Known about the structure:
alpha+beta
Amino acid sequence: MNDTPDADWDPRSHQVQSDQRAAYDAMRETCPVAWSDYMQWSLFRNADVTRAVLDHATFSNAVSNRLTVPNGMDPPEHTAWRPIVEKYFTRSRVDAFEPVCRGIAAALIAAAAGPVELMGAIAHPFAVRVQCAFLGWPDELAEPLRRWVARNHEATLARDHGAMTRIAGEFQDLIRDTIAARIAVGATPETDVAVALTQETIHGRRLNEDEITSILRNWTVGEIGTIAASVGILAEYLASDVGLQSRLRADPSLAGPAADEILRLHGPLVTNRRVTTCPVEIGGRRLPAGARVTVNWVAANRDPRVFEDPDVFRLDRDPSDNLLYGAGIHVCPGAQLARMELRVFLEELLARTSAIAPHRPATPAAYPASGFRTLHLLIS
Ligand code: HEM
């Protein structure tokens, strides 16, 4: 039993940043509940991550003073807010959005034949255009959104709290100006999700500006960063496995399950945070009340205790073991939307090409991002 917070690892070290998956796999096997001065406690084993996300009374989501709707909330507040968010991601909304999403994927892929740096040419534009289209916003808003997400990531990595506060303020300005401009050009709750949020009510009153901004920030960070990382991871995996390309071209109905399994092997979202509400023992270590805890989805989804041959792509696994979209009360409400977007991307990529191959070595993305910073492929 060890309750002394020695620094077990450094998440900023070159070794971690150059190959996050290998580093997190090693931590899971050698020090599954680890302390660092950068992020305090990290959980790497599937059982510990699952326990933390299911036990929301002990592992609270109220990790920050900043309003985060709904991810930074616990019940009963979270219970009241969650349905307001969920209704934007229903099956019928996702189905209605699919042709728009397919059009965006098809146009980007058609423009990218030959040698291509896929992150810049397809992954980031796809994520940001899909997000704009889903909100009902014009394409001109894609670039300011993309820049905001990139700067937010940099400030998060640097743990630069001043910059993070400034960037959060800029996002609020962007959202306020955008909603006003959208209403001025005649956008309605039916055509614009942000305008629709201005009509929502909680506890018998309209949502205020901070709450609307917070909801949209949660979707924007969730959507743009993670979808772009996912697109890169899927394309790189296909480029490395010609057999899988043929299999999916022959049977496109496998695209959805294949995306979930590839993203289990190489998680696009690295962590989420919790804070303990009381002293707790986990993985043989004692954490005090108020300890900051990070659940590591990448390591948990590659845990050999749950996934036999964790490095092997297999479509016969139990999908309910896959923690890609989380578990418990905070499970991703955008999962149906994300799954549709990634399936459509894969279907279009495979249907519009006959070969996808590596061109130059890829550069990995640094935490808090996952996947690739650059990804040079040959597409024909
Ligand atoms: C591949 C893409 C995505 C992945 C892997 C992903 C993964 C996750 C995970 C693991 C959580 C749980 C976080 C926690 O337990 O603290 C989560 C929550 C959330 N996700 Fe996603 N997500 C994706 C896409 C999206 C999209 C497209 C949206 C919306 C546009 C979205 C919106 C949210 C929101 C609002 C929450 C917080 C829910 C709550 O706290 O109740 N995500 N996501």
